[in-house]
Amino acid sequence: MNTQELAQERVEDTSHFGWLRQLTKTERRTFIGCKVGYALDAMDTQFLSFVIPTLIATWGLSKGDAGLIGTVTLLTSSLGGWLAGILSDRIGRVKTLQLTILWFALFTVLSGFAQTFNQLLVLRGLMGFGMGGEWTAGAILMGEVIRAKDRGKAVGMVQAGWALGWGVSALLYALMFSLLPAELAWRSLFLLGIIPAIFVIYIRRFVEEPDVFLAEQRRGAQAEQAKFTEIFSPRMLSTTLRAVLLTTGAQGGYYAITTWLPTFLKTERHLTVLGTGGYLAMVIAGSYVGYIVSAYLTDRLGRKRNFILFAAGSLAIALAYTRLPVTDNVMLVLGFPLGFLVSGVFSGMGAFLTELFPTRMRGSGQGFCYSMGRAIGSLFPFAIGAVGQTLPLGHAIGLFAAGAYGIMVLAALTLPETRGKRLES
Q: What residues contact residue 318 under an 8 Å CB cut-off, 6+ apart?
């Protein structure tokens, strides 16, 4: 009897967090490994956003140069996510998780030794492969280990680790820049990227491969696993394309809002609260709560209804920011629902993609769909900038946010509801 069946035989604890107390040892260790791994991924990734002003001042970078580093990182993370999915179908979810964490930790540390813009660009680009790969491996691993009725909550709470890592990176940034001169502080911050590599020891010792994946291996399905192109077969192509549209909508809307909204509010509304620690804290707190609430709702309402709810909410908050007259005090308060909605929309994504694909191609399918959505979504900020040359920036943001979340809703409506689905080999 596998761990999922054992968990299902227990007496149910119907309290909100009862499912956490009922986790088996294997499930609990996997949950900790994936959540902490995702938080450390976010920590290393977010370091760059905090040191960009220092790099502009120290190296004389243009805003375009700084933006290019972020764009390249997103594009390589897209490719890394797909490659990690393929790899997880071949060598296993746990080994791939370890490899991707070590990868992004190594290149984060090496970024601290960069002497030129080109060196940093290459190193952050390489770091992106591990950043995208870690999400894929962790989401698949957690989705396969946990029992079906709690899959949405578990995977969503793992994703909430992103907000925790974001918060930790902000605290470490404040600490390093208070103790050291700026030219040393930014390097020290990147050197702290070694921390995730240490955590791999925990994963290697305590986290096991999911039963459903091991069963697939025992069936001698290695030849099938190698055919990652099966996600484009006539039987799976429609599911793959609709899942890409779903993830494109979620990530395109997120990038449209988070990339350009601060610029709009500063330049056209002349607000000053956007760059403050208080506003950042409100957004991060909202993001964490949004992840958690959405994680519960995706099991309570179903995957599709939850996506539609948060997509509509994200569009509404974007329109509120760009169309309503607001003051600094109002904007500070609105930081919480902004983080809540645009982050919460992702909470059910890992569980849903896990349930859409069979085990032998789950890594390839999940990695490709999420990564392709990230790649296409990363083009939205560029498109808004181009359209913003002829339209008011607020209208351009609203236009692309509406398009993105509209695509997401349409994709959700056409895809099957998978809540409670048992994963089979």
A: 253, 256, 257, 261, 397, 398, 401
